[in-house]
Specification:
By secondary structure, the chain is α/β, with parallel strands linked by helices. It is built from four helices and four strands. This is PTS galactitol transporter subunit IIB.
Length: about 90
């Protein structure tokens, strides 16, 4: 079971939009029931990263992370989305 953190500045708006897209990506690629997603504020991620496999955030990468980091900005802009989706799927295979 992969533990995924999804964060934005306040942990409400853009992270909600990104979560929907991540769930669709994972489910369409056969990962139903193989992951959990925790939505949070970016300020919470360093302490939560000890128990996560990776973080997808719509902000800059925070320091002191103990998990892999993926920028979620391509899910908002569309630019680089395919590469980001591949990165997520590669991390799911680990």
């Amino acid at each position: 079971m992969k533990k995924i953190l999804v964060a934005c500045g306040a942990g409400i708006a853009t992270s909600t939009a990104v979560i929907t897209k991540i769930k669709n990506l994972l489910d369409q690629n056969g990962y139903q029931n193989q992951y959990t997603i925790k939505q949070c504020k970016i300020s919470e991620t360093p302490s939560l990263s000890d128990n996560a496999d990776f973080l997808i955030a719509t902000t800059a990468k925070p320091s002191n992370l103990n998990c892999d980091f993926i920028s979620g900005v391509p899910f908002l802009t569309g630019m680089g989305k395919e590469a980001t989706e591949k990165e997520i799927l590669d991390l799911m295979k680990k």
